[in-house]
């Protein structure tokens, strides 16, 4: 039978279409989208459906998910997931909620009960979801309102109702921008600071700020519009869920307290530190709390203190003010301005010296200069009653104005050379633009809160600087100490040990990033990778991502473990891995 030219053309076109389709599906350059999650959808997979890998044996029951994971030819691990138990398990933070350890404390005078007390071993249970949990309100709308069901804590609404911290309006919690010291709103307060000291140029010479006792982080949230990134922190205390509110809003924040241990930041890090009625007794224990602020404040940096002792003269406030005058003089801080605005709220702004000459001229060396070389990795380091030494070199010319400092190296830096930083910046710029943004199955429009688990010099964060997100740069304590470089660049971060739980609430980050960390023997010889993945699952929101660059051996392990958690997973170029968390949780035990 004769075949027409038209039939031949159709046959050839069909064959070509099939070939192209096959190429796209198998190519390393293909982007594999994950199934979309509706903000009100709940992801509950069929418990009888197998996790997709031929070496995984899945056994399901009503209370847990079990999986036998074959890590290699000789090692087989059984995975079993259970929900964390207890009335507060929805917001469980293992190292801050270890009530057995807290009960055994001999003292709580210095906020010991608000510090870290990690259980051993680190728990592997899964955090249940709040009832009616939804995907968060997108940024920037989230700065002003969040779903009540995601953080269903009404106590702060009632406790601070006269101060406009937060209001409950139907299915939303709304943040009007008020605060204890923000009587006319946080915008007016920030303008008040600008008028009080015009040399403070937000987003220029002031880029990295620390807000002590931050409340719901409205101060830090307002500064985002001025190209300032603020590390807002407060303890987990009676101000219920304040840091959880901040992170749900998409504002950088962490749980911490000035108690008996150093803050997990490097020395000489912040351009400005702020305290508005933060309830810290700065002169306590010989002035150790203020000496800790002095440690993390860069030379020439400012401390803004807005509290009643500044502008009231009753006996109690006068006594606190006089103690503060004596203490700040002893550490050579100078008052650059002290003023009161039209609302009746006042503040004082101090400046840290840029030279040690004042220290040497003091009539008494009390407090003394720290005589030993400080370990920058301030991890479980007791507070010291001494003045941190200033860095060497011309500190008056550093840091450079933002954004130039992002690609600059501090003169005489011992942490990184200019060429090393340049190459690291170029490397991460290429990986982020060519791989992460183009070819991985990540919907970046939904990503606001990001954490780099092994940040190095902050190159990953620097490559994302122009996107509407922020990055918490974590430098593991068993890795080279590069966190000071991160801050020098105008970025923020903390020290951490990934064999322990992080000081954050569950469901607070949209994306976690790891580069050659999860398979590193420095980590895996000290704790199980399953424990670390359970912590990742605790931190990441449903619908959020884990992005990994690592060896295929590590990637396969992650694929097994996350498969047992019903995460969707994709591998790219045998080097990059993306996992996306769903709404699945093990079933609650029957009563």
Automatic annotation (TrEMBL):
This is Methyltransferase. InterPro entries: Put_SAM_MeTrfase. Keywords: Glycoprotein, Membrane, Methyltransferase, Signal-anchor, Transferase, Transmembrane, Transmembrane helix. It comes from the Eukaryota. Its EC number is 2.1.1.-. One of its GO terms (biological process) is methylation. It is an enzyme of class 2 (transferase). GO terms for molecular function: methyltransferase activity. It is a single-pass type II membrane protein. Signal peptide: none annotated. It is found in: Endomembrane system; Membrane. Belongs to the methyltransferase superfamily. GO terms for cellular component: endosome; membrane; trans-Golgi network.
